[in-house]
Write a structure and sequence with these properties.
Elements: H1 2-14, H2 18-25, H3 34-37, H4 39-54, H5 60-85, H6 90-118, H7 122-148, E1 167-171, E2 181-185, E3 188-195, E4 198-203, E5 217-219, E6 223-225, E7 232-234, E8 240-242, E9 252-257, E10 260-265
Antiparallel strand pairs: 1-10, 2-3, 3-4, 5-6, 6-7, 7-8, 9-10
Length: 268
């Protein structure tokens, strides 16, 4: 879908600064930010409708406040969601576009509800909130599909079994300074990097979207950058230091024996 690709490109340009991407991706938090933020507007609007149904006119003022709180909370929620969506491709991107448009419709109805309530038209406001909440719930189900079925936002190394035995993967002469080398240990792809004389090993599959870290490049401060979405990870401990990744890379223990490099999964 051409319009989805163009929209994603615009969002990527708007969020390309490291500070913006890190903030919206949840890099600073250690997990994706958007799913957590969605509880705020949905929760506020759900409670507003609950008051509409159970408290009558006595709860009208509180219900209006809750609708307003949801409208305020939707701003950072939408920003984080757009940032995540801009890094998706193919069918998930198209589903994400429908997810976003559904949420826009839900927000528009909640905004109209707040205006109607403010002007004293409680019945209209209640009806608009109810319809808006239903649309938002439908859009949320698409968000759940993206996460739980398509794996968007899920760490791509989360379900890899650890390799506990030392595994011979390469000769020391195979690894040159600042040139990532892809090897395999127990069926798991690993990237070896020699930097400033020290040898490091990380899982080669980027936690964010599965990109090949061994095709990335070394950047400042002893870090490696994924070639797909420019996530940056520290070689020493795998920590994500730039988004969109919010989860660090698994690191591997390394030892050298008779000119051969052996690795095993590092103990958490």
């Amino acid at each position: 879908m051409v319009c989805a690709a163009k929209a994603a490109g615009l969002v990527r340009r708007a969020t390309q600064r490291a500070a913006v991407k890190d903030a919206l991706s949840g890099t600073w938090l250690g997990h994706a930010l958007h799913p957590m933020l969605t509880d705020l507007p949905i929760g506020a609007w759900a409670m507003a409708s609950a008051l509409d149904l159970t408290a009558g006119h006595g709860g009208a003022k509180a219900a209006r406040r809750l609708v307003g709180i949801g409208l305020v909370a939707v701003v950072p929620t939408a920003g984080a969601g757009l940032s995540d969506w801009s890094d998706s491709h193919g069918p998930p991107r198209r589903v994400g576009l429908v997810h976003g448009l559904g949420n826009v419709a839900g927000v528009a109805l909640q905004a109209a509800s707040w205006v109607a309530r403010y002007r004293g038209h409680r019945g209209v406001g209640v009806a608009l909130s109810g319809v808006g909440l239903g649309i938002t719930a439908g859009a949320a189900s698409l968000g759940g599909h993206l996460s739980l079925v398509r794996g968007i936002g899920v760490s791509h190394t989360a379900f890899r079994e650890p390799v506990t035995d030392w595994t011979d993967v390469a000769s020391t002469s195979d690894v040159t300074e600042d040139r990532p080398l892809r090897v395999t240990a127990g069926g798991v792809p690993v990237v070896l990097v020699r930097h400033n004389g020290a040898l490091y090993a990380l899982s080669a599959t980027c936690t964010h979207a599965g990109g090949p870290l061994d095709e990335g490049k070394l950047v400042e401060d002893g870090c490696i950058q994924c070639p797909w979405h420019a996530s940056v990870f520290r070689l020493a401990d795998g920590e994500a230091v730039r988004g969109p990744a919010s989860v660090g890379q698994p690191i591997w223990d390394v030892k050298i024996d008779n000119g051969r490099i052996h690795v095993r999964s590092a103990t958490p």
